[in-house]
Amino acid sequence: MQEKTNLSSANWKRTLSNITPLLETIVVFFIICLFNESFITAKNIQNVLLASAPMVVMASGYTLVILTGSIDLSNGTLLALTCVVTSFLMPEYGNLVLIPVILIGLVAGLVNGTLIVALKMPAFIVTLCTTQIWKCAALVISGGASKSIPKAAWIYLDWASETFLGIPLMFYAALVIWIFLVFIQKKTTIGRKIFAIGANEKAARMMGVRIKSTRIQAYLICSVSAALAGYMYALRLKSSTPTIGDSLNLLAVASVVLGGTWMSGGHGSVTRTLPASVTIMMLQIALKVVGLDAYYQEITFGLILIVAIIINSDHDRSSTIAVV
Fold first, then answer.
1. Among 17, 62, 247, 315, fewest CB within 10 Å belongs to which?
2. Could you tell me where the beta strands, DSSP code E, fall in 166-238?
């Protein structure tokens, strides 16, 4: 009887953990609407979903690295780099620009993962350094200036803002990538190894998990996701700015943690990163609508991240069932 009660309690906790990010999205939406009734329009909802698409992709890939108990500070500037590359190459090559974008993501992930694993350097230091490398590359390519994609090339990117059933096509594209990453996390050996490393690296090593290769794979997925998000930002804005990624890494981490993933690793879900990403971007748009200065917006999201980390850190690993 006691065993059934414990199992029922565990199932209830798992269900609550899964729906909490969605409830957060709904609550935030209604709070925003209370203060600004004009926010409840189909156009605004479409804008939120369009703005959320790149963040969903970036944060979902980021979740896998954080699940290992590691971090990647270079995601934002990597996004800026591929955004710049997209705006420069799209007029001539159209959506074939996806090829160099993905290659850049693979190289970035390989560099980060190899330096961290092979040289045993702290992830914080490595990704802080590569943050500057990707940022400098974006500044060099762009000449430090914004670049608009010529109207003649809009035929390659107009699809992103078109809608189907009231939802932007780019958000559908983000959903496809998100579903793929959910599949990797839940249904593949890589996903199970990522969880094992984050939960207990020593135990994972004793079970035969290849720690080094798994960490590199997590960084590859994370960087390719950030690179694709940069491509999506270029499509959404029809332009690029080399400094666009300066604050996006904070938003991505906030999305992951708000979705219930522990910064210490071993607990969380790509599934819950989706509604959390939408919540974060909805808040950002709402703060812009009320005219809050960009610096105060960053303070707001920094506070949200701190609160989310405090809430998530109040746990006991020995008695908690990881949500997978």
1. 315
2. 167-168
